[in-house]
Specification:
Helices cover 32% and strands 20% of the residues. By secondary structure, it is of the alpha/beta class. About 7% of the residues have low confidence.
Length: 450
């Protein structure tokens, strides 16, 4: 699939243009410079042709800042992947030294490059575009990413510059573009957790490249980054998310939008991998994130990351850690716990295997005959407790079709008197007979037909 990279110095409107071309709101848009850090992929369709669009962070030349150095590395990767480059500049600020340096680097890259003069929100500003001829990149295209002015002409030229022999296909990153329609049949595994738990490090270790920026600074990741995984015969999406902190500690608008996108990633995922920092243990915020996962009825895997930093790695220590996690998350305890290290790649591929296993369990179907054969004798031996002298009899059970998670209905004469402890008893019996590890299940008690 053909690819277009959107580049430029910070705060010129690259993410706004990305959202305009992909017709999404995937990229966070703020007036604050340096909002975008990791490269973001999306689909654009124009005149019957579909191609990939890459949003990049602001390109700064000669900076010693940690983030800006890593952002520049991400931009360079995008340039290598791109067939056409769009350099975005700001008509209101004119030609800056940064624009000159970026244009010089693009000329050296020998990539077909289009110059987009952005923020021309009314025609009175269009004459300021002439100044940008000095960048030496040809005729500028006057656009407003905010309201769509001039983007059609820009896209027409993008299609003209694509290689004539390029076939419409899908690249590994090109498939990681949409979390809705594109590849909706593939599993989606979201890496979630507190800031600095190692989510981006795990993703980079799994795919074998620096897909997202990793630093020791909490809050490095801001957008939810969808990445297509296709190795060892396994195919799915990995979603790196921003760390979720307590609401009271989120004071900046930028972090608020990052957290909102992380919550949406949980809502759109099939299985959530909750990362816990092994050096800190399970804390209240981990439980809050788990509650979001449970509320949205998603599959769960707990990954205790940074296990290489723990001194006591004995079986007793592992067992104590597992017991602490299951005790805090109870009553739901049927989920995998994996001790990982992104640095040493310890058991990271076990995460993939377990995630696929949990995904399969979410769609498991149990024949009605098997359910009744196994459960009815147990129910007869251990019936629900009587309520005010009224005895409850469960006569029949079956699994409901086409549900988000495995859902079972039990038919009883007095369903209103079946309390939560007995529901948990039934759930535990179901889990003891059939492998439903990692997935929540739903139980309904209904009046039996007369």
């Amino acid at each position: 699939m053909n690819t277009v990279a959107i580049v430029g110095r910070p705060n010129v409107g690259k993410s706004t243009l990305f959202n305009r071309l992909t017709q999404t709101r995937r990229a966070i848009v703020m007036n604050e410079a340096g909002t975008t850090r990791d490269r973001q992929y999306g689909h654009c369709e124009w005149c019957g042709k579909t191609f990939s669009v890459i949003d990049t962070g602001g390109w700064v030349v000669g900076s010693d800042d940690t983030f800006e150095t890593e952002i520049n590395r991400q931009v360079n990767t995008s340039l290598m992947d791109a067939d056409v480059v769009i350099l975005v500049v700001d008509v209101n600020e004119g030609v800056s030294q940064f624009d000159m340096e970026v244009a010089h680097l693009l000329r050296q890259a020998h990539k077909p490059t289009l110059l987009a003069v952005n923020k021309v929100d009314d025609f009175s500003q269009q004459y300021g575009a002439a100044e940008f001829y000095k960048l030496g990149l040809g005729d500028p295209y006057i656009i407003s990413a905010e309201n769509g002015l001039g983007t059609g002409e820009l896209l027409d030229e993008v299609l003209r510059l694509f290689p004539a022999n390029e076939q419409q296909g899908a690249t590994s990153e090109g498939n990681a573009l949409d979390n809705t329609d594109a590849g909706a049949a593939l599993p989606r595994f979201a890496l979630v957790g507190r800031p600095n738990a190692g989510k981006s490090s795990i993703l980079n270790a799994l795919i074998g490249e620096e897909r997202t920026i990793v630093t020791d600074i909490a809050g490095t990741t801001r957008d939810s980054i969808y990445t297509y995984y296709n190795k060892f015969g396994k195919e799915f999406y990995l979603v790196d998310t921003a760390g979720i902190r307590k609401k009271a500690k989120v004071t900046e608008d930028l972090e608020y939008y990052s957290v909102v996108r992380s919550i949406r990633a949980i809502e759109n995922a099939d299985v959530c991998i909750l990362l816990i920092d092994a050096t800190r243990g399970i804390e209240a915020q981990d439980l809050h994130i788990y509650q979001l996962i449970q509320k949205n009825k998603k599959g769960l895997i707990v990954a205790v990351n940074k296990w290489d930093l723990v001194e006591d790695k004995s079986n007793a220590a592992i067992k104590a850690f597992e017991n602490a996690i299951r005790t805090r998350i109870a009553p739901f305890t049927d989920f995998p716990i994996i001790f990982t290290s992104a640095l040493t790649k310890q058991r990271i591929y076990k995460l993939v295997e377990e995630a696929l296993h949990v995904y399969e369990n979410k769609f498991k179907k149990i024949p009605t005959a098997q359910l009744n054969e196994k459960l009815l004798p147990i129910i007869e031996t251990t019936p629900p407790p009587a309520w005010k002298g009224k005895y409850i009899k469960i006569k029949y059970c079956t699994q409901l079709p086409d549900t988000q998670v495995p859902s079972f209905v039990f038919f009883a004469n007095l369903p209103q008197y079946v309390k939560e402890p007995y529901r948990r008893f039934l759930e535990n019996k179901i889990r003891s007979f059939w492998d439903l590890t990692g997935t929540p299940i739903q139980l309904f008690i209904r009046p039996k037909a007369k």
